[in-house]
Specification:
The chain has six helices and ten strands, in the order βααββββββαββαααβ. The chain has one domain: Phosphatase 2c, domain 1 (4-Layer Sandwich), CATH 3.60.40. α1 runs antiparallel to α2. It is an alpha+beta fold and 223 residues long. The strands form three sheets. It has a four-stranded antiparallel β-sheet with strand order 1-2-3-6, covered by helices on one side. A hairpin with a 4-residue loop joins β8 (162-163) and β9. The longest helix is centred in the first third of the chain and has 23 residues, at 48-70. Helix content is 33%, strand content 22%.
């Protein structure tokens, strides 16, 4: 949170073959959120073009942090990076690699802000450390007036959360997730227990990261 009404979320997933995957993903996520926070505290963009510029600068900053961490050989710290920024007026996202970003609008409509991978195999992706990484980045800027929830997740949850055929969000997955995040008293431990549950793990054996944010100033309708 930046102030009372601006949220910045980053999810990074280190490559399975990367020797320093955890270090690389942590560095990318912390660098991205820290850079955005500093920029927004100074001044918030007021045009879509300016938001796009901020997203591009943030990806460059995260890549630079990995270069400082690992030097010329970036393979040991290879990682994806997903970023979402929500203000009362704007919702801006950036994606480098697999995973997903979903926004909930008016407590009911789900919109996907990530794009399906364009590699030949489902377990292939590009990374923040890939050559020409910015050419693979997918950035979006949209109005946020009706935004009520945000979810970012790593590729370990894509089979549960997304319909690959048309790149749409799977509502039976997201509806209870957003309702859970809205309940007073919900804990990270409960979310972790759900992600480790048999019904989830029987669908995926990959690492699973899920970050959720919901509006707290509006009551969620009862279903």
């Amino acid at each position: 949170m930046i102030g009372e009404n601006t949220v910045v979320i980053a999810v990074a997933d280190g490559a399975g073959s990367a020797e320093r995957a955890e270090e690389g993903s942590r560095t990318a996520a912390l660098t991205a959120t820290g850079f955005v926070a500093d920029r927004l505290r100074a001044a918030q963009p007021d045009r879509a073009e300016a938001w796009n510029g901020l997203l591009q600068e943030t990806l460059k900053e995260a890549r630079s942090a990995l270069e400082q961490l690992a030097g010329a050989d970036l393979k040991p710290v290879a990682t994806t990076l997903l970023l979402a920024i929500a203000t009362p007026e704007w919702f801006a996202t950036a994606q480098l690699g697999d995973g997903g970003i979903v926004g909930e609008f008016r407590f009911d409509e789900l919109r996907v802000f990530s794009q399906p991978g364009n590699t030949e195999y489902i377990n292939e992706t590009v990374f923040l450390t890939s050559p020409g990484f910015l050419a693979h980045a997918h950035c979006t800027v949209s109005a946020a007036e009706e935004l009520t929830g945000i979810a970012l997740f790593s590729d370990g949850l894509q089979l549960l959360a997304m319909q690959y055929t048309d790149n749409t969000a799977h509502k039976p997955f997201f509806a209870p997730v957003f309702e859970f995040a809205s309940r007073p008293g919900s804990t990270v431990a409960e979310l972790a227990e759900f992600l480790r549950s048999e019904r989830v793990c029987e669908r995926t054996d990959d690492d699973k990261t899920l970050s959720i944010a919901v509006r707290g100033d509006l009551p969620r309708p009862e279903r």
